[in-house]
Amino acid sequence: MNIFNKALVTVLPIFPKSFISLFSRRYIAGETLAEAIEVTEQLNRQNMRTTIDVLGENITRLEEAQAMKQICLQVLDAIDEHKLNANLSIKLTQLGLKLDKQVCLENVRELVERARDYRNFVRIDMEDSTCTDDTIDIYLQLHATYDNVGTVIQAYLKRSVDDVRMLIAKGANLRICKGIYDESPKIAYKNRNVIRNNFMQLVKLMLDADCYVGIATHDPKLIARSYQYIHEKQIDKSRYEFQMLLGVSEDLRKQIINDGHKLRVYVPFGEQWYPYSMRRLKENPRIAGYILKNLFQKG
Question: Is 264 considered catalytic here?
Fold first, then answer.
């Protein structure tokens, strides 16, 4: 079945979007901000905080970047208005990075300043490796002035240990994740255990350095190893949080909450749900097989 699922993922692009949407409903709050607010309220009631993300990336006109910035500002306004326990996640390519880096920087600065006014926080997501240097550079420019901004480091990149050590020296606030983009083996680890070990090295570096870290994983082994290190080093719970995607490992996230740790759920919404959904399917081919099996059973 595993081979079938992987084969199914390779042909997914020929399937209609209506099929992909069957999968995406689990992982996406909806197409509107109102739906993201509703999902966040539900999670808050379960003692989970969220980070809200407006789906969309690699825009082709600066006018699109301005429009995306306005939506992100609306998200920050809504979080404050509805008194949600939530912050904002953004992607630099949706704010103009590939078109004009300076315009992108100023767009992000406006978001960070709005968040600061609300005593809130902006997380700059990491995208594929063509964006890594610029993302870190923009983050550091903003971090020099604002303390309510953070970024993300991907454990599968071979450069990440050096990046984290450099960022620790700046007092960075980081999310550590495995990484999901398809990268060359020249720059990215491909072995699961090697990635796991690198992930833990990055998390330990952050915890040892007294920097705030978001431990973003659904991997029970990494969560257990993180628990163990936090216990051994007697790390205060104000120094870290666990993070998970909407619709993934829901029993495990409840366990993390029951164990007394903070947990943040990534809540994406928007009309541009298709690329995000395809990445999730490629990351977890079993979902595609499960959906297809159910379709035939119902038919």
Answer: no
